Amino acid sequence: MTTSYRQLRMGLHGYGFIGRTHVLASQLNLASSRPCPHIVWDTAVVHNLQSSAAALAAQTFRLVTEDVQAFACEELDAVSIASPNDAHMAALSAALQNRLAVYCEKPLSSHIEESLRMAEMVEDARVVHQAALMYRFHPAVVDAYEWLHSGRLGRVLTFRAELLHGGYLDPDRPMAWRLRQEQAGGGALLDLGVHLADLLLHLLGPARTVAADVRTFVSTRPGPAGNESVTVDDWALARIDMQSGAVGTLEVSRVHAGRERDSIEIVCEGGVLYIPLDRESHAEVWSATGERLPRLAPDRHPALAPIPSKFAQTAHLNAHAVSLAVFALRVAGEDIAYPAPTFHDALAAQRLLHVIRVSAEQGGEPLGVDN
């Protein structure tokens, strides 16, 4: 029997690449008949009404405006915040005036102190909220969570987490907000590392200590007024010791090319879990003797199922689609029986990355995460 859901009217803050990804992901859910409320995109708040982004938004949204206070006035159910990191707080403040549910891109803010305040604000307002840490909903991550919590693989020994992306290896790529510390709050470590940090905390529990190295390889890029200094990192590598006793590494890069790598490998006493984040796939699991193990078959909420092959796009877009579906279901009051990433989860991941950065600034000195 198919559950009937009412539509979810949403606003969107920012209509750049990620904002458009949110809209496309919701349309993918509709096309593939995913069991969740249909998102109707109603109000878009953009930086400049004369921009190409505003013109594109006008083809989808009922209202396009520069005034973030539209979220406090409009009859909406929820707001998706997909603007540059330093603009998130303004959108959140407006949305909470209207007690709207909030879906926010990572990191919550370019400043960790502001991220803490944002997490406190949604808790105080008692609204449904979710961080767009969408890799939690990758089918291989859901598999890994169930394997690890079943206890069948025993104690976790080691892990390796990698997100090695291209795009910024080309020194002629123009300057952008993501390359300015004051707007982005960090480079590869924060932009990509927040996903890995969240997954490690989600799957393996809290971290105890870190020791790290962070580098910027392309120090200047062409800007509107000539070359401009890059003030964020291109690459980072950290050794992380977990409170459970597991030890491993986290590596992120935005100066990669060709064969990009997005994966997590977890070695346990009873076998090995491999999580391929770069493709739509279930986890690969081997026993300690090298035998490929069959998938677990738990009773999952149907919204967590992978998108059917005829509709499936990239693993990245598919994960965005499932993440938005889960958010819509939670706004509708449904329990999906799987941990959706809260603002406090996003803050915990950002805190871990902050300690990694401080360790690198201190020459790789091991630092306690709690301190």
Automatic annotation (TrEMBL):
Molecular function as annotated in GO: nucleotide binding; oxidoreductase activity
Q: Where is the GFO/IDH/MocA-like oxidoreductase domain?
A: 144-273
- Entry's InterPro entries? Gfo/Idh/MocA-like_OxRdtase_N, Gfo/Idh/MocA_oxidrdct_glycsds, GFO_IDH_MocA-like_dom, NAD(P)-bd_dom_sf
**Keyword set, alphabetical order:** Oxidoreductase
For this protein, the record's Pfam families field holds: GFO_IDH_MocA, GFO_IDH_MocA_C3
Ranges for the Gfo/Idh/MocA-like oxidoreductase N-terminal domain? 9-129
Q: Which PANTHER family match?
A: BCDNA.GH03377 (PTHR43818:SF11)
The name of this protein is Putative dehydrogenase
Annotated source species: Alicyclobacillus sacchari
Q: Taxonomy-wise, where does this protein's organism fall, top ranks first?
A: Bacteria, Bacillati, Bacillota, Bacilli, Bacillales
